[in-house]
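Predict the holo structure. Ligand: 2-acetamido-2-deoxy-beta-D-glucopyranose.
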Amino acid sequence: MGLPRSSPFSSMAVLVFVLGLVLNAAVLCNGGITSTFVRKVEKTVDMPLDSDVFRVPPGYNAPQQVHITQGDHEGKAVIVSWVTVDEPGSSKVLYWSEHGKQKKQAKGKVLTYKFYNYTSGYIHHTRITNLKFNTKYYYVVGIGHTERKFWFTTPPEVGPDVPYTFGLIGDLGQSFDSNRTLTHYELNPQKGKTVLFVGDLSYADNYPNHDNVRWDTWGRFVERSVAYQPWIWTAGNHEIDFAPEIGETKPFKPYTSRYHVPYKASGSTAPFWYSIKRASAYIIVLASYSAYGKYTPQYKWLEEELPKVNRSETPWLIVLMHSPWYNSYNYHYMEGESMRVMYEPWFVKYKVDVVFAGHVHAYERSERVSNIAYNVVNGICTPVKDQSAPVYITIGDGGNLEGLATNMSYPQPGYSAYREASFGHAILDIKNRTHAYYSWHRNQDGYAVEADSLWFFNRYWHQIDDSTK
Ligand SMILES: *[C@@H]1O[C@H](CO)[C@@H](O)[C@H](O)[C@H]1NC(C)=O
Ligand SMILES: *[C@@H]1O[C@H](CO)[C@@H](O)[C@H](O)[C@H]1NC(C)=O
Ligand SMILES: *[C@@H]1O[C@H](CO)[C@@H](O)[C@H](O)[C@H]1NC(C)=O
Ligand SMILES: *[C@@H]1O[C@H](CO)[C@@H](O)[C@H](O)[C@H]1NC(C)=O
Ligand SMILES: *[C@@H]1O[C@H](CO)[C@@H](O)[C@H](O)[C@H]1NC(C)=O
Ligand SMILES: [Fe+2]
């Protein structure tokens, strides 16, 4: 600018620029770590129907498959869901705070659905509202017949420096390995308070006629966690249950009947994409299996949603989706590509901190990279280091019956920082507006062992390089 073309200054600048490109390319040509951890690869099999974890609670019309999720945008409401099998019974929830004397009641709704020759039990969904922040509540379901009592703790009031601990689980299923993953999550000394679940719940669709009995067993299996802390749901491909060969042509029927989410509170028009605030985090759930192209409802919602995120209120911007955008396994390779093309420029513009996905049954963490320069004719189609970009984490290693994804592409691409084919879960421990500690825990280790870990620096408040190489 203003300098003659031949000035030593400008050639210097060009040299620095070229050197920068070379260095950048060098950085991105060498991948990160492919773990050398060796485990015994056994067949992953589902727990049989008579397993302890699937036991039906005793008593006439006893509520089963009890689960909770956040019920509003801020964290002052909870949706309580459960199933009764003998008769509809009551959809009322009785609840009271730990130190409060007054018991309150919330009314809900009951529904049933049919899937081929399966008829569901009575599925209840009841929203409890106007809860106090940071308070332990007890709640009772099954009023009138067999009552069962549970409890949960509401999150602290939304604010920029509020610490909070999330668990990350994906592609769980109901195998013996799924049970190990859940046990490791429960016994991890860094106690997760809410699970961010990245899709693929029961894998009932792997059974003949999508045997929906396996949706019920899954509900009973995970009750021991999800009745006591909210799981934030993302829809995966195993939730689609599209089976025209047996006359089932309405996608997501079992999933949407059983799992309700507070999508209307964030202005969404469908339960597959929505957002919540929780403590210092703003969580956006996206739908890999709903239309996301330009002009679609999800696109329009996300376009209006991202500018609403106030990082002075919720510094941590987290996105959940099922199909990963950055993946170096030879499974589901590039399945997330068309959604990446649509939304990645926004993720960089709005400085998303981290994206969690599942789908690939293994673990992988990316560098902060973006790949948004390509315009069909310019040939610029390689991911580059980008400090405004999120870290992408694939955590589809819950342990479902389909087994581990072990086949990786070589050499490890530059965007891949760490990858390992083991089952496990992760913890995201937000400390304040600048720092969050992240760790991944494989099932073969002791409960406290961290197989991969790093400090995340917030992209809005502390945008300094937090890469691990
Ligand atoms: C549904 O049909 C399958 C085979 O078509 C059969 O094995 C199963 O027992 C049936 N289930 C019910 C609840 O009728
Ligand atoms: C599942 O894990 C729990 C907790 O570790 C254990 O009590 C139970 O026996 C396990 N069940 C099966 C079928 O593995
Ligand atoms: C963002 O949040 C801060 C802190 O809660 C608040 O003071 C500010 O008014 C908010 N900004 C907007 C544009 O709402
Ligand atoms: C791994 O994936 C590659 C690419 O899809 C394929 O060519 C190769 O046969 C696979 N290897 C194994 C052992 O399955
Ligand atoms: C935020 O948390 C990190 C990690 O615990 C700590 O080092 C840092 O001092 C904290 N920042 C503030 C302003 O307290
Ligand atoms: Fe999947």
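The radius of gyration is 23 Å. Residues 1-27 have pLDDT under 50 and may be disordered.
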